[in-house]
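User: Structure please.
Assistant: Input sequence and predicted structure:
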Amino acid sequence: MNETDEIRGTAQGTAPAPLSVLDLVTVGAGRTATEALRTSVEISRLAESRGYHRYWVAEHHSMPGVASSSPAVILAHLAAHTTRIRLGSGGVMLPNHAPLVIAEQFGTLEALAPGRVDLGLGRAPGTDGATAAALRRTDRLNEGADDFPEQLAELTRFLDDDFPSGHRYARIHAVPGPIQSTSPGGVQSPHRPPVWLLGSSGFSARLAGSLGLPFAFAHHFSAQNTIPALDLYRQSFRPSAVLDAPYALIGVSALATDDEREARRQVLAAALNMVRLRTGRPGLVPTPEEAEAYEFSPMEREFIDTWNSNVIHGTADEVRSGLDDLQKRTGADELMLTSHAHSGDLRLRSYELIADAYGLPRA
């Protein structure tokens, strides 16, 4: 299997494009991180059995309602509970980490789940400025984002083990990695995870296109920029050893329930959680009852209406119709669904209902 085969998915059933999962490991009020992580295992196994193409975990920090601060750790756990589905980061925030550390972590994941690992990279911190400063041990946060292309190039060289002779890192090797196949007696596979660039604006879209890399756009929280960013990616694309044509997926917030009213209740609770996050009060995902009793200010109500207008929710048929329309409007090559609800059981049920709506196969 070459790298292009690992990147491009195949639509299953009647889905307009391959369907995948983005997991934030959300923690609801009254629930624990342990329960949230168990739900992630259940969703990953369901996704694998129903023909979802890949399962990504997002890096976030200092958010009580999001237990995905360590994607590599979670992915290792999911690798032990699955056998076929692709696993990856959506994404690892490169400026938060030394490139060598990421190369080592994902080389380890590749050794644990050969041929199944994606390395999605973002340039945002995945948190607030103060937390980013603590992660990076510096207050010069813009420097990390501005240096993203250089950090990406360094990480890629560690992954490929191909620093030129005379480079200060030429004698440093990411292990597990290609160096093990070229060492005396080495039989380690030289394969490494394909790199994706993630973004919510034009910067990463243009960079991914110029490098011939696959691109993932965060439609679920930057919907107004989706089509311009995808257009920019396609216009900027230059064929590479990785891809001969553009390949773009979009993250989509989607929740299907057996009862339309329950979908509205859950989406309201998730939106209240976002209101609190955006106003510096991050917490656990509130219950629908708490959200229904909450007195939203006019400004908060306006935010809620705008936010929820980009959440595809309702019955399975309504969600299917919304996803079909979104894929048609954007031309996305893949739809990566993220379901936000207070209950882990409802998130699990959502992915099952969507699979049923599209007639995805049952393993």
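The CA atoms of residues 88 and 118 lie 4 Å apart.
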